[in-house]
Design a protein that fits this description.
homodimer; 347 residues; alpha/beta; 434 Repressor (Amino-terminal Domain); Rossmann fold; six-stranded parallel β-sheet; elongated; DNA-binding
DNA sequence: TTGTAAGCGTTATCAC
DNA sequence: GTGATAACGCTTACAA
């Protein structure tokens, strides 16, 4: 093997240039796949690169290019499983590439949130950022990223941005279908455990529930709605509110799986059978859905696929607008839903 | 505000030097808290830094120092909740610091695993890495990190390394206490759903189970053991194996929560009441433990605290050996355990 | 098609 | 104590 400056230090672009008898710049052109390059030169340099095991130093590139080959992920989400699925999707996209993923959870109630995010992006000189709900629903962040000259992709439950900056599911439609499933089973009073204010997903899912019921002329008044904040405990509380009411629903749609799990808990405490006495449907299809008893009927959200696509949009901005932006959900019927007792007769 | 070169570009060390009338190097000394510095000079420069809102460029520092202010996290773990908790602990430690966290999941069955990790560390020039079980149990990785001159901390269930490179729980002792709790309730046949081969945690937990039973002269033979691989499905299968046996146990300890959830599922399918007919204990205290019905008795692992400590060991290597290395687990009794039917009489 | 020179923003060396 | 000067490894002008 050809000699290097000293010891076993990693080879640099200078080593490659010297050994292949060309200039640094030419090596740089090879690395960056410049089109105007003699084929013979390219091959010669590539041979040396392979022989030396040369890998460009990302820190040096970052300095020269004023941008880092790093993707950022910004979130403040109560749903751990979703965050992790998203991370895995991003990693699917950057595997075997020069990119790295840095994660940046934030506190959306912090007064310094904007400055915090600004500093994160400026300091890391990110190639691009992905932002998760509910932060992604705030247009001010998009404006901030534009101002900082940082590419971004938002993840959302509705059409928040143009195709180059968005990966989205259609939650309203998905919930409508799930609730129609309950109606088709024979349910006539279907409760809703809605998500917290300020979450676009909560709003979309509520409207999907309403769409389904209104289309069939079924009740969808406030007495059938209880609010939670996407946590197990608030799901319990909402379940109590609904099941202890004067005229309790025979089925409940909860805006996410952990709240649905809370509802199932309450039903058990009341001595109610699920799905015999009350059917429960969740949303997300996180691990918990298949793990609780009975297994939860829910809506699967292709988070990992969406995340992968989000990362690809950042890595290949030129193709971002063509890359898929809408991702279909999938209804997953399990054992937590059944026809109501005597339901078919009523219908 | 004093003028900067052009437009609204971020101020650099040169701007600070020019405006405060000192050299770059002096500013650098201020930034790096060099002790040999005139107090007046320091204050003057600090004032200019504050006025300009100057922040050192991490990429440039990384290039000059040949090391990046970035911590890496390497894992291949079936337990999503643990990974996420660990991430949060690390972020607790680096919040408001110049450090960033890059995550690097790997496939431990990949033939290129070592090269993959080597490349990750060399390329990112990491300040340090944290490695999670079961990867952390392999001494070859520690040797690799040493060879690469990269500081590391391992997370484990037993004493894998010296205090500067380890954060650990004592799983054997923790499980012993949990199983003793079952014995004290009156259980005499206590089954084990053990974790997969190759996991130190699986081994430690099995020995803890055995310790407790042997100390009381209770059976702990292979007919009471079924193996899973830390997943829900394998937990189900192991539960079937145990509950369908000729002389089924009245209580089961599962090596982690999701396998325990699988056991609970099987019990339900068999028409068995938990804890009336069979008590179940898990390990981890992940979100699932409180969410299933009945809420799961388990052992809480202070992962987030351990992770925070691991990151601090990397950031302050000089104090690493003094920083806490052993982290106590906590037994969390919930509703999935009770005295066996007629158990007290047998005892 | 290729090379030269001048950065990018920081730190290390070694004088003063 | 402080400051020129030369790295660090790469890229972008601008020539040739």
């Amino acid at each position: 093997m050809a000699s290097r400056g000293k010891g076993d230090a990693k080879p640099t672009i200078n080593d490659v240039a010297r050994i292949s008898g060309v200039s640094k710049k030419t090596v740089s052109r090879v690395i960056n796949r410049s089109p105007l390059l003699n084929q013979a030169t390219r091959e010669k340099v590539e041979a040396v690169i392979a022989e030396l095991g040369y890998v460009p130093n990302p820190q040096a590139r970052a300095l020269a290019l004023r941008r880092n080959f790093v993707l950022g992920m910004i979130y403040d989400n109560p749903n751990a499983q979703m965050v992790l699925n998203f991370q895995e999707g991003v990693l699917d996209a950057i595997r075997d590439s020069e990119f790295a993923l840095v994660i940046h959870p934030v506190d959306r109630s912090s007064p310094t949130l904007f400055d915090d995010i600004r500093q994160f992006i400026e300091q890391q000189r990110l190639y691009g950022v992905m932002i998760l709900p509910p932060l992604s629903e705030n247009d001010d962040f998009a404006a901030l990223f534009d101002e900082l000259g940082c590419n971004y992709v938002r993840m959302g439950s509705a059409e928040l941005d143009d195709a180059a900056h968005l990966v989205q599911s259609n939650d309203r439609q998905a919930v409508r279908e799930a609730v129609e499933f309950l109606v088709d089973l024979g349910h006539r009073r279907i409760g809703l455990v809605e998500g917290p204010d300020g979450f676009r997903s909560a709003l979309e899912r509520r409207e999907g529930w309403r769409d389904a019921l209104q289309a069939r002329g079924l009740p969808c008044g406030p007495e059938l709605i209880a609010q939670g904040s996407y946590t197990f405990e608030t799901g319990r509380a909402a379940g109590e509110c609904l099941l202890d009411s004067a005229d309790p629903p025979s089925a409940i749609f909860a805006s996410n799986d952990v709240m649905a799990a809370g509802v199932v808990h309450v039903a058990r405490e009341r001595g109610l059978d699920v799905p015999g006495d009350v059917s429960v449907v969740g949303f997300d299809d996180t691990a918990i859905a298949a793990t609780i008893w009975p297994p939860l009927t829910t809506v699967r959200w292709p988070i990992r696929t969406m995340a992968r696509s989000a990362a690809l949009k950042l890595i290949h901005p030129e193709a971002a607008a063509q890359e898929q932006s809408q991702f279909p959900t999938e209804f997953v019927p399990r054992a937590s839903t059944a026809a109501p007792k005597g339901g078919a007769a009523i219908s």
